[in-house]
């Protein structure tokens, strides 16, 4: 999936595109972007004009209506991509289009053609317009610039509200959960225990399916689960089985429940891990109602 | 008298006879010898002839001749009055005017003058009035002032003149006013005040009445009057006395009024204050209000400073004093000068005011405000001599503290970890070390003075600890630095390339519309204050020195000024390189720490090096940039270096541009070189690579 997304993005790069990468958390968007940036950097050659560089950065939140959202987004883009501070006087004095031209000039001098804007969902619509202005300015100035907006599931809803941006999205890459087979491939590369498993053995297949089920096919969760499993395997005498794999998961899950109980908070887990009851071990509906009442009385 | 007799007269006699005729015609009566002598003097030739002919003086000769003429019957004499014989010529006088003139004694005539003067002035008169009147009517009264004075005193003794009244005087010997006894004193009463002292006494009484009235209305005791208030009151009158133009005259008058036998006013002295107040002599001390009374601006400002010091517990600046004045409007200075100038004036121990074009230098006896020192551009003041050393300690400590914060050593130290380039990090670290060592020494010197309050010393100690900690940390960093091979750069040059205000003004004028209207470079400081970093001038001596190198307390950091101008008026390349350089350079201004960047592998690192050197602009930097513009393998870096050379040298790089236009392998660089050869030096600011 990772390679597919990279290829799809590079396919439209020559057009100076806006590309959207979206998908739920821990699905591997950021990892893919970092990997892609690193690979592009490896390929970069100063004397070869056909090579270019890529930059990945994560934006902070820009609330809607907070003022100067265009300029703030452009300043963030400048500082992250060009690795230098934009002078405060220059920022205050100039209009967004001038800032955008300054950014494009800097990108050209540093030969940056691909920028990954991570957590773009936290930007307001106006801030996203500011980023779009940079791309348009680059296109007008004859510089190929692809901006990849990376965000979670709400990002497409946000972008569709702005036809100017929505229609400029040359590709939309949806990161989906891994299938069992993909999970198996990943597990093989992550841990030697899984590399030894045989696909023809039912018990082994059940183990991989269990991991897939516990992590919901999310590579980010699979990686962290493997780290926990690796720690537990050190104390295991004998072979691991499905029960053991579940126990490793439950151990940390239970600790989380107890911690939340202690802090009298309502546990509302992210509903991606199938088989994890949302209310199990958490606060009862009555408790939740009492909590809401308390909140209201506080207001 | 026949012509025959006249023809036999001597020429001298004929001359005297003519003079007699002149005198008779002039006075329309018979004339005395003196009058004939005066008539003779009208003709110089005749008078010279008489003087030449006779050895006796003129009047005696004239008297003799007149006597001979009278004996011979050529002239006549109606008789003698006193010691004067009167003569007349029949030819000059008609028959009815040949008698003796009516006789009036001098004393009678003086009495007449007194009467005339009194009627003319409409009041009783002093001797000086009479003398003045006689002088203005000299034709009628030819009596000398001494005789008039003597006659007036005689007339007073005989009862012909009455002493109507006398004026106030310190020794009770005031001036006397006279009237002839036949004039009713009630008809010609002299209007008061007659003298300067009387005018002052009258005004004082009126003002005191007003004070009492006001005090009664507001249910409190009246406050004493200062000489300034009395002067203002008298100046407000329709006809102000000319003596009021000099303050000292009024003060002298009040002193005299307080020392006469029947004193009108008395002094009120307040502890700790020099200014004297005045009240009527019959007002007891317990019936006056002395609380919160400020006579002069010096008192007001002294009190304001004292209150501010007590409230804040430290020396105070103009801002603090202004806040204190806002709390209590009584402390507001009465003069039109600004508060800072009043405070500055009050704090001067030696004063040199200009009186009538002459500088008068004197020491202030009562110093209410002491100058404790200056922090940045704010002067700090203290109110007593006792705590002045502590106050100076506080000011010096605050000055050092601000200097320490301005160095930004703590931030510089923290940013070393994020510094992408080891040489720049090393330079900045050495800079921090130098600043910290210098600050540590200054603080130790200050703490050794043993002055300062406990609180101020605590703060100084804690700052000293902080500086020591920074020194320790930076030394550890330098010992364990990531690139110990850079040993050849063991010392940083802290000398900063600077511009005076005039140089900066000349630099900014082509760009800055506001600067184009400025002729005085000092006005530029206000425009760019806080925008361009200023560094203390090590050669500063006094701001009144002629040489700007000694007169300027601060210089402008040239690199910072270039950054400022680049961000404000530069084109995209200029902005890009200035932002890049500003981000990495920090406060480092030693180009030696930048040169290693030009040989690094990554083109971005070399680009950063070029940008930094473009704004440091040393001679060696230009040479290195020229080399980079020719030899660097990256076209982007070569382009940036070409732009940097042009930015620094202007038209001086045309040779380099010509060679690059021919030899550079990159098309863009060749085009850029061709384009850049025909532009003016200022256009480099907006030129795009």
Structure description:
The complex is a heterodimer of chains A (299) and B (689). Chain A folds into two domains: 2-174, Rossmann fold; 180-297, no CATH class. Residues 271-286 of chain A have low confidence and may be disordered. With 299 residues, chain A is of the alpha/beta class. In chain A, 36% of the residues are buried. Chain A is built from 14 helices and five strands. In chain A, β3 (112-118), α6 and β4 form a beta-alpha-beta unit. Chain B folds into six domains: 3-97, Orthogonal Bundle (Arc Repressor Mutant, subunit A); 106-180, Orthogonal Bundle (Arc Repressor Mutant, subunit A); 196-287, Winged helix-like DNA-binding domain superfamily/Winged helix DNA-binding domain (Arc Repressor Mutant, subunit A), CATH 1.10.10.10; 297-385, no CATH class; 391-479, de novo design (two linked rop proteins), CATH 1.20.1440; 498-685, Leucine-rich Repeat Variant (Alpha Horseshoe). Chain B has a three-stranded antiparallel beta sheet with strand order 5-7-6. In chain B, a hairpin with a 2-residue loop joins β1 and β2 (84-88). The N and C termini of chain B lie far apart (131 Å).
Secondary structure elements and pairings:
The complex is a heterodimer of chains A (299) and B (689).
Chain A: H1 2-13, E1 18-22, H2 29-43, E2 53-58, H3 69-82, H4 88-93, H5 96-110, E3 112-118, H6 125-140, E4 146-151, H7 154-160, H8 163-166, E5 169-174, H9 180-190, H10 192-195, H11 202-215, H12 219-233, H13 242-262, H14 285-298
Parallel strand pairs in A: 1-4, 1-5, 2-3, 3-4
Helix pairs in contact in A: 1-2, 3-5, 3-6, 5-6, 9-11, 9-12, 11-13
Chain B: H1 3-8, H2 11-27, H3 33-40, H4 44-53, H5 58-71, E1 76-81, E2 84-88, H6 106-121, H7 127-136, H8 145-158, E3 161-166, E4 176-180, H9 196-217, E5 225-226, H10 227-235, H11 247-259, E6 265-268, E7 277-280, H12 297-312, H13 318-327, H14 339-347, E8 350-351, E9 354-355, E10 358-359, E11 362-363, E12 370-375, E13 378-382, H15 388-407, H16 409-415, H17 422-448, H18 454-479, E14 498-499, H19 501-508, H20 513-516, H21 522-528, E15 534-536, H22 548-551, E16 554-557, H23 558-569, H24 572-585, H25 603-616, H26 619-631, H27 635-649, H28 654-663, H29 667-676
Antiparallel strand pairs in B: 1-2, 3-4, 5-7, 6-7, 8-11, 9-10, 12-13, 14-16, 15-16
């Amino acid at each position: 999936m990772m390679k597919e997304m990279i290829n799809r993005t590079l396919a439209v790069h020559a057009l100076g595109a806006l590309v959207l990468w979206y998908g739920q958390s821990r699905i591997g968007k950021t990892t893919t972007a970092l990997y892609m940036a690193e690979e592009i950097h490896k390929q970069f050659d100063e004397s070869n004009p056909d090579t270019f560089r890529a930059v990945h950065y994560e934006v902070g939140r820009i609330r809607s209506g907070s003022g100067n959202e265009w300029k703030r987004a452009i300043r963030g883009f400048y500082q992250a991509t060009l690795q230098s501070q934009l002078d405060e006087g220059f920022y205050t004095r100039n209009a967004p289009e001038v800032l955008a031209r300054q950014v494009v000039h800097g990108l050209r001098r540093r030969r940056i053609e691909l920028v990954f804007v991570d957590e773009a969902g936290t930007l307001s619509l106006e801030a996203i317009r500011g980023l779009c202005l940079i791309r348009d300015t680059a296109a007008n100035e004859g510089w190929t610039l692809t901006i990849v907006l990376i965000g979670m599931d709400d990002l497409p809803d946000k972008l569709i509200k702005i036809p100017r941006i929505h229609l400029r999205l040359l590709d939309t890459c949806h990161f989906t959960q891994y299938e069992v087979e993909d999970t198996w491939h990943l597990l093989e590369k992550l841990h030697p225990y899984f590399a030894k498993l045989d696909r023809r053995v039912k018990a082994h297949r059940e183990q991989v399916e269990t991991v897939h089920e516990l992590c919901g096919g999310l590579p980010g969760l699979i990686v962290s689960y493997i780290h926990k499993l690796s720690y537990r395997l050190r104390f295991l005498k004998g072979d691991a089985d499905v029960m053991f794999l579940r126990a490793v998961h439950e151990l940390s899950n239970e600790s989380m429940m107890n911690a939340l109980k202690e802090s009298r908070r309502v546990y509302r887990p992210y509903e991606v891990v199938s088989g994890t009851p949302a209310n199990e071990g958490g606060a009862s509906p009555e408790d939740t109602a009492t909590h809401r009442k308390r909140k209201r009385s506080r207001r | 008298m026949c012509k025959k007799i006249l023809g036999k007269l001597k020429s001298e006699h004929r001359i005297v006879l003519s003079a007699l005729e002149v005198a008779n015609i002039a006075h329309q009566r018979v004339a005395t010898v003196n009058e004939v002598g005066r008539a003779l003097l009208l003709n110089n030739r005749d008078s010279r002839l008489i003087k030449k002919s006779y050895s006796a003086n003129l009047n005696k000769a004239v008297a003799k001749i007149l006597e001979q003429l009278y004996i011979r019957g050529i002239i006549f004499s109606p008789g003698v009055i006193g010691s004067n014989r009167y003569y007349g010529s029949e030819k000059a006088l008609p028959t009815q005017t040949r008698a003796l003139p009516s006789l009036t004694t001098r004393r009678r005539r003086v009495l007449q003058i007194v009467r005339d003067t009194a009627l003319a002035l409409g009041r009783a008169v002093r001797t000086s009035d009479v003398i003045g009147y006689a002088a203005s009517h000299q034709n009628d009264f030819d009596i000398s002032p001494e005789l008039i004075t003597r006659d007036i005193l005689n007339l007073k003794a005989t009862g012909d003149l009455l002493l109507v009244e006398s004026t106030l005087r310190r020794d009770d010997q005031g001036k006397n006013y006279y009237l002839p006894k036949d004039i009713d004193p009630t008809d010609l009463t002299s209007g008061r005040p007659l003298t300067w002292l009387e005018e002052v006494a009258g005004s004082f009484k009126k003002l005191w009445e007003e004070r009492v009235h006001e005090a009664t209305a507001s249910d409190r005791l009246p406050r004493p009057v200062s000489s300034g208030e009395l002067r203002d009151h008298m100046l407000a009158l329709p006809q102000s006395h000319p003596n009021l133009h000099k303050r000292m005259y009024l003060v002298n008058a009040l002193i005299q009024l307080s020392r006469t036998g029947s004193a009108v006013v008395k002094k009120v002295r307040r502890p700790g204050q020099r200014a004297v107040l005045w009240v009527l002599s019959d007002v007891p001390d317990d019936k006056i209000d002395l609380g919160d009374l400020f006579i002069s601006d010096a008192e007001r400002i002294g009190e304001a400073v004292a209150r501010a010091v007590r409230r804040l517990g430290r020396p105070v600046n103009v801002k603090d004093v202004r806040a204190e004045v806002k709390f209590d409007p009584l402390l507001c200075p009465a003069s039109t000068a600004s508060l800072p100038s009043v405070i500055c004036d009050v704090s001067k121990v030696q004063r040199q005011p200009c009186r009538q074009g002459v500088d008068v230098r004197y020491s202030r006896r009562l110093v209410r405000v002491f100058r404790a020192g200056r922090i940045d551009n704010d002067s700090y003041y203290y109110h007593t001599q006792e705590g002045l050393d502590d106050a100076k300690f506080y000011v010096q400590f605050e000055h050092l503290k601000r200097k320490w914060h301005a160095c930004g050593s703590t931030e510089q130290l923290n940013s070393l970890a994020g510094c992408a380039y080891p040489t720049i990090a090393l330079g900045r670290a050495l800079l921090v070390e130098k600043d910290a060592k210098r600050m540590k020494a200054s603080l130790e010197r200050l703490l050794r003075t043993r002055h300062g309050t406990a609180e101020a010393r605590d703060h100084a100690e804690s700052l000293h600890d902080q500086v020591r900690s920074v020194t320790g940390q930076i030394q550890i960093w330098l010992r364990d630095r990531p690139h110990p091979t850079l040993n050849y750069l063991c010392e940083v040059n802290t000398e900063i390339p600077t511009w005076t205000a005039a140089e900066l003004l000349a630099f900014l004028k082509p760009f800055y519309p506001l600067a184009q209207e400025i002729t005085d470079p000092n006005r530029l400081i206000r425009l760019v204050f806080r925008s361009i970093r200023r560094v203390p001038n090590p050669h500063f001596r006094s701001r009144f020195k002629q040489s700007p190198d000694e007169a300027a307390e601060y210089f402008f950091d040239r690199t910072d000024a270039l950054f400022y101008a680049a961000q404000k008026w530069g084109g995209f390349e200029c902005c890009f390189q200035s932002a890049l350089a500003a981000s990495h350079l920090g406060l480092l201004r030693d180009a030696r720490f930048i040169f290693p960047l030009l040989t690094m592998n990554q083109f971005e690192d070399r680009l950063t090096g070029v940008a930094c050197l473009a704004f440091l602009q040393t001679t060696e930097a230009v040479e290195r940039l020229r080399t980079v513009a020719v030899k660097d393998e990256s076209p982007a870096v070569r382009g940036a270096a070409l732009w940097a050379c042009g930015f620094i040298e202007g038209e001086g790089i045309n040779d380099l541009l010509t060679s690059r236009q021919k030899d550079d392998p990159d098309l863009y660089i060749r085009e850029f070189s061709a384009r850049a050869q025909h532009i003016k030096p200022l256009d480099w600011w907006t030129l795009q690579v």
